[in-house]
Structures are given as C-alpha cells and as structure tokens.
Amino acid sequence: MKTALIIPTWNAQPWLLPLLDALKKLDPQPDNILFIDSSSIDDTRDIIKEQGFNVHQIPKKEFGHGKTRNLGASLNKDADILIYLTQDAIPAQIDLLAPILKIFKENADTAIVFGRQLPHNDANVSARYARLQNYPEAGYTNTISDMPVRGIKTFFCSNSFAAYRADTLLNIGGFPEALPLAEDMAVCARLLEAGYKSTYCADAQVRHSHNYGVYQDLTRYFDIGAFLSVDPWFKSKSIKSGGEGLRFVIGEFKYTIKHGTILNCIQIIPHTLAKFIGFKLGEKCKSLPIWLVRKISMHSYYWENT
C-alpha cells in the first residue's frame, strides 16, 4: 500500500521541531509527506524546507478543513492510503503507521482508521480527561447499524489523526467542504452510510490536546452546533446526542475530584455552561446576525463568504 501523510499548517512554529523530529523517525516511513501551509507569517515554511520536507503553499483565504484535505488528496493521486495529521499532533511511537496499515490490509470494507490521542505533557486536568474519555485503551469498529444504539458517537472520528482508503474517499466525493469544522465526522457518516466501516486503532498513538479557556470552549461548541445545523446529512437524520454531554460532565467531575483540586472542580461549571450556550447558539446560527456569528465562532473565516 502506498501511503501519503498530509499535514495542514498555519503558524505552526511552536510545534514544528518535535513534530518534524518524530516524522523523521517513523518506521515504516510514509511514501510521501506533504505539508500544506496557509501562508504562515512565522518561519513555518522555512523550517519545514530546511528539514527536508515538502510544503505546498496556499493563500490563507483558501483554507478550509475539508477543502484543504481534498487538495492534499488531489496532490497525492497515487496514494492508496491518505493519513491526515494536524500540526500539533505529535507521533508518540516510531511504528505509528504499522497498526493502521494492518487494519486496512485485513479489512477490505474499512474506509477509515483513526488513532488514539494522548494528552500533551502540559495538559490540564480537563484536557487529560477529555482524551481518556474520547480515546480509550481498547479499539473498536463502527458501522451504520450502530447508530440506533450509539447515536452521534457512531460517527466519532478525528481530523487530527486519521487515515482513509483513498479510492473509497474519492468515490463518495471527498470531504464535505461547506462546513465550519467536523469534516471528519461528516465524511465518516457518508462512508458508513455507503456500507463501509470505521475503526478506532488504540495501538496508533499521537500526543494532542488543548487547554481551552471558557471563551474558546464557547466558540468551539458554537461551531459544533452550527455544523449539525448546516450539514445536510446530519440535519436530515435528526441524530441525537443520547445524553453524551451529561455523561461527560459527570465523568469529568469524578475524574477531577480524584486527580485535580477543588478549584479544578469549580472551573468545570463555567466551562460546561460555555459549551452548552455555544452549542445552542450554534444550532440557531442561521437566525443570528452575521457579525455575532463571526464573533463567537472559533473558525470565523468560514462565515466570511456565507
């Protein structure tokens, strides 16, 4: 299987040295590693080139989560497997690709394999819990038949570290582009509906986490709510979360009581409120004034041409 590793970047300098060092050590190596840079204003492109990697530059205004990933696919037409990594997701093992490729080779109907995300060393209690909750120790496989039981979790994936069977991805039209985020979930839903499977591979691990503030949580969850309201597939299915939010908060309190402080426990409250308010506003994004939408969206550039 010929593999291509595609990494979108923008002002990635803080993460580049550990990322590039980890990429050089991968065994097996991808057949091609391509960075797609959205006209960074720091030294991102220079560092990438100095370290011997290929970088394709695009204007910042042309970036889109789905659009840029589709571009990466079009620039690697000879690849059988497309692996996408974000600039702040650092491989945690040398044999990162081996367990992923093994799954693809042994399961012809698997279209997506996404890996485990471990928290960065500086992750706060909340960020550590989020990674433990969303990326457990045991792997699993999802099909469209899981939707009645698992609900929206059936389509859980990650745009930070996931691999796709290239011809299958192309056959369903690639990543949806007219979305503020969650292009990974959107394409996963379409692939599963087409009869394919997605697999979570806990044996392939990267380090990736965010210490979001309250406002960042609000903006991110605004975009999640907006995604569910603008994506035609999810909108038509009226998929429910099945109480995932409540279960997450209860679990977070239990984890924080054990591993954090009283202050950490108190901080869960404003963060949870911000997520809830952001999500509900996102669901109503089409009825809100555009200036407000741009203000409370984490990916405000998406709304500039809507």
SSE layout:
Layout: E1 3-9, H1 13-25, E2 32-37, H2 44-50, E3 54-57, H3 65-74, E4 81-85, E5 90-91, H4 98-106, E6 110-118, H5 125-134, E7 140-142, H6 147-150, E8 161-165, H7 166-171, H8 183-193, E9 197-207, H9 214-230, H10 232-237, H11 244-259, H12 262-283, H13 290-296
Parallel strand pairs: 1-2, 1-4, 2-3, 6-9
Antiparallel strand pairs: 4-8, 5-9, 6-8, 7-9
Helix pairs in contact: 5-11, 9-12, 11-12
What does this protein look like?
The structure is a single chain. By secondary structure, the protein is an alpha/beta fold. Helix content is 45%, strand content 17%. It has helices at 13-25, 44-50, 65-74, 98-106, 125-134, 147-150, 166-171, 183-193, 214-230, 232-237, 244-259, 262-283, 290-296; strands at residues 3-9, 32-37, 54-57, 81-85, 90-91, 110-118, 140-142, 161-165, 197-207. Strands 1, 2, 3, 4, 5, 6, 7, 8 and 9 form a nine-stranded mixed sheet that branches. α9 (214-230) packs parallel to α12 and α11 runs antiparallel to α12 (262-283). The longest helix has 22 residues, at 262-283. It is globular, with a radius of gyration of 19 Å.
